[in-house]
Amino acid sequence: MIKIGIIGATGYAGGELVRILHAHKNAEIIWYGSKSYIDQKYSHVFRNLFQVIEDICLDDKIEELASKVDVIFTATPQGYLASLLSEEIISRVKIIDLSADYRMKDVSVYEKWYGIEHKSPQFIEEAVYGLCEVNREEIKKARLVANPGCYTTCSILTILPLLKEGLIRPESIIVDAKSGTSGAGRGAKTETLFCEVNENIKAYGVTSHRHTPEIEEQLGYAAGQEIIINFTPHLVPMNRGILVTAYADLKENTDLETIRAAYKKHYQNESFIRLLDQGICPETKWVEGSNYVDINVIKDERTNRVIMMGAIDNLMKGAAGQAVQNMNLMFGQEEREGLDLIPMFP
Where in the chain is the domain with CATH 3.30.360.10? Predict the structure, then answer.
């Protein structure tokens, strides 16, 4: 059994980690870390787990936890893990970090976009970006995995095949994305109150959203050159989901069959990526509660542009599901273990 500790177990992503790992045949959670609910029963925080999990929430003492488990999930705000991580800790336990602390290789970019000083930049180079479909072999050998963000996961996987195959002009990429409110976390914020969100849709973080450089860096690796994009996120009144609609100019007058062939080439063996039938647009409701990524693509013959569309559950493939997928790779488990979940409907 893989012994697991979770720090940040009472946030939305932490709750999803618990839900998934409870059904994982080779996983045992022994530490539910939550500074806000110390000594309270975990099922009092998430009542869907009443009479399912009887454990008590513990503190977030990562040094103590490192000696008791095989892997730690840190579902914590930016800066938490970077302020505590040391060689002593990482030499004893593997870590999957759901924050942005180790996602970007240039520490100055991280500090500029997140507005905080990085306290342990010495671990950035060895951290593996945990996008399983791209870095699978590196993840298997990693002791520190930087779990990708939700917008980034959906954006990168939606666009990557056409960049890899050199079919689109990198400088022309525009990403328009929509997210459910759980992406903002479980903390109380005025802008995510029911009356603020309901019957409303709004853009936010325009030209300044923190996932922008993460998307650019990873797409840059795929293209083999520096990438600069326009990325505009929107908040929509639903609990879960990310919908990405991305646009780019085609380099040549490439037909749709060739465009779709690029996706089949890169994703035909990926069990969590579903290339939809021609003409079907991805919808968040068809991936909710699952680790799937639904993708499709349409060519605009009139403008010679391609419209790339992707949908994920932001708490699953965009956070906890992907984190468990990473854990499975790191510990030699079957990659789908604990994640073979059919999307919920309605």
Answer: 151-313
Residue from 57, 132, 150, 154 carrying the catalytic annotation: 150
HSE (CB half, 13 Å, CA atoms) of 18? 29
CATH homologous superfamily for 151-313?
Dihydrodipicolinate Reductase; domain 2 (3.30.360.10)
Mark whether 150 is an active-site residue: yes
pLDDT at residue 47 in the model: 96
The CATH H-level (homologous superfamily) assignment of domain 2-126 is NAD(P)-binding Rossmann-like Domain (3.40.50.720)
pLDDT value for 189: 87
Q: What is the pLDDT of residue 81?
A: 98
Listed as ranges, residues in the chain with pLDDT below 70 are none
- Note if the bond before 346 is cis, omega within 30 degrees: yes
